[in-house]
Amino acid sequence: MTVMVDIRSVHKSFGSLEVLKGIDLSVRTGEVTVVLGPSGSGKSTLLRTINHLEKVDRGAISVDGALIGYRRSGDKLHELPEREVLRQRTRIGFVFQNFNLFPHLTVLDNVIEAPVSALKRPRAEAVESAHRLLKRVGLADKADAYPRQLSGGQQQRVAIARALALEPKLLLFDEPTSALDPELVGEVLDVIRDLAHRGTTMIVVTHEIGFAREVADTVVFMDDGRIVEQGPPGEVLERPREERTRLFLSKVL
Ligand code: ADP
Ligand code: MG
Q: Which residue ranges does the record assign to the ABC transporter domain (predicted)?
């Protein structure tokens, strides 16, 4: 089995606040990793370093074999040229808690924006592919709608279609259902579950334990900038070894 994401000893501080205190994590191709942990434990920062939205201070991250940051204490940080960073970022899909759709663009234009402007795909080709993706997320009839005319669940499904339009090799989800009314959570999780069954490599930060139990290959529990424990859902969720994991699970279950 090949490794899609390899994170070694990653450290990240904001000023004097150390937010990632030596993260080691390996994500295999085709697998789903669910990241759990209390607010402020560093989950979003970890996702953002994988997508080059934050630079690491120390450590190494490689995505699909391409190294994106590396420094041993005292050494100089190897940094990629900005052009290469942008190129790599287009191969990693990122779905945010608050959808982040372009409000002034239709659903269709939201989905084709990146393929046309970043990847220089012919518009007609991008449109055809966008219709196919909108159908996949159950929104074939919403291509001409504007985001404000959609429910939160529908907007998040558009955001997923938009991420897929770049044919990413890796998808990152940062609490994709946290901003949704409870009755809309299921329709978004259904789409993510479908992607999992298609063998999409994903890292999903979520508090949806039922989803983690069902879909995750690996569950990672983070607290205070560290990975406290990781393993198959049957172990981490059912028989956690660490007291901090037990305490967290007792609060969210
Ligand atoms: P989580 O997603 O687990 O809630 P975050 O990664 O968002 O945690 O944040 C971890 C810690 O880093 C928090 O204390 C947060 O306030 C801090 N933090 C995150 N981003 C920044 C930033 N850009 N500048 C300063 N502090 C930040
Ligand atoms: Mg977060």
A: 5-249
132: tokens are 């196919």
pLDDT per position as a tens digit, 178-205: 999 999 999 999 999 999 999 999 999 9
Ligand approaching nearest to the C-alpha of 222: 1
Question: In whole angstroms, what is the distance from residue 42 CA to residue 25 CA?
Answer: 14
Whether 108 is in a domain gets the answer yes
Token readout for 92 is 């990693």
Which pTM does this prediction carry? 0.94
203: alpha, beta or left, given left = phi > 0 and alpha = psi -120 to 50? beta
Residue 163: give the domain boundaries: 92-167
**Residue among 232, 83, 211, 103 at smallest CA distance from 155:** 103
In total, how many domains does the chain have?
A: 1
The DSSP line for 164-230 is: HTT--SEEEEESTTTTS-HHHHHHHHHHHHHHHHTT--EEEE---HHHHHHH-SEEEEEETTEEEEE
Nearest residue CA, atom 5 of ligand 1?
A: 42
Residue 87, both tokens: 């190129």
- The number of the ligand 1 atom at minimal distance from the alpha carbon of 41 is 3
